[in-house]
Write a structure and sequence with these properties.
7 strands, 7-stranded mixed beta sheet, 2 domains, about 290 residues, alpha/beta, SAM-dependent_MTases_sf, Class I SAM-dependent methyltransferase
């Protein structure tokens, strides 16, 4: 691999396709080359047409956003499933237990970019909202409800601004400063797709799954993140550490196994990274597991 190709590949890995295009364009102001012998008429037509494409972008900028987030060094594994599964299931009511605040403004100055560190936030929310946007364009009134126990007015305002700049805010129903179990007790609407990613303790995950199960439609899917977590020692004030009782039961991993043992009607498949997919419908589970 020569140096130019290696440099481009490193930029793509760090910043995604959008970052690669941006940095390549800033490094060289030359127009893209065309084959030798191309007529001046067609050269002019090509350049003008390409400029219009770059101005409008339309849905392509959202594909670039998903590709950019899929290039995250730590959270890459969740992006494609969280984008593709909603498009295939066509849910209207998506619920996310455990969201995050944005790193935009504080860590990253590009609303379409990413901060390639552990502190990067709002990844699953952005991906699910992007799927909602495509579903709405197709005539399916999909929305995402995000519940998170954290309550920080300034960070929440930054998060809203970030989603506003991405034109995704209209599909979002946030409940910040709210415990997921309290929200589930009050919820009256059937859920089509649920994403579980709050505190990774035995008690929390088991309670969330028990509360979610009767609220899911028959063909509904529950996606659980970090399903292999056995001990979750939290270093932040808003999340509870796993206690000795939870550790003895296997933490989040044990909670999922116990739920499946007590509810055999829920079929399941696991990814190597610990994403767990639960569904009662055999045909849907066949799609998820094959």
């Amino acid at each position: 691999m020569n140096n130019k190709i290696k440099k481009a590949y490193d930029i793509y890995r760090a910043y995604g396709l959008r970052g690669l295009i941006k940095r390549t364009a800033s490094a060289s102001k030359k127009r893209p080359s065309l084959p030798v012998g191309t007529s001046l008429v067609w050269q002019k037509k090509f350049y003008e047409f390409r400029e219009e494409v770059l101005k409008t972008r339309h849905c392509h900028k959202y594909f670039d956003l998903v590709k950019c987030l899929a290039g995250h060094s730590l959270f890459f594994y969740k992006v494609i499933p969280l984008f593709s599964i909603p498009l295939l299931l066509r849910p209207t009511n998506i619920v996310e237990l455990g969201s995050a605040f944005t790193s935009y403004l504080e860590k990253c100055n590009d609303p379409w970019g990413r901060y390639d560190k552990l502190e990067e936030g709002l990844i699953s929310t952005r991906v699910l909202l992007t799927a909602c946007r495509f579903l709405n364009k197709y005539g399916i009134k999909a929305s995402l409800t995000s519940i998170d126990i954290r309550d920080d007015k300034k960070k929440f305002e930054d998060t809203e601004r970030h989603l506003q700049e991405l034109d995704l805010l209209q599909y979002w129903k946030p409940f910040y400063g709210t415990d997921s179990l309290d929200w589930l007790k009050r919820n009256k609407d059937l859920i089509h797709l649920a994403y579980v990613d709050s505190s990774h303790t035995y008690k929390q995950v088991k309670a969330e799954l028990e509360a979610l199960a009767p609220q899911m439609i028959q063909n509904g899917v529950i996606i659980i993140d970090d399903g292999f977590t056995i001990n979750d020692p939290s270093d932040v004030s808003w999340r509870v550490n796993e206690d000795e009782g939870g550790r003895s039961k296997g933490g989040e991993f044990g909670a999922v196994l116990d739920f499946l043992k007590e509810h055999p009607e829920w079929r399941n498949t696991w990814s190597p990274e610990g994403m767990v997919y639960l569904c009662r419908n055999a045909s849907v589970m066949k799609f998820l597991s094959e």
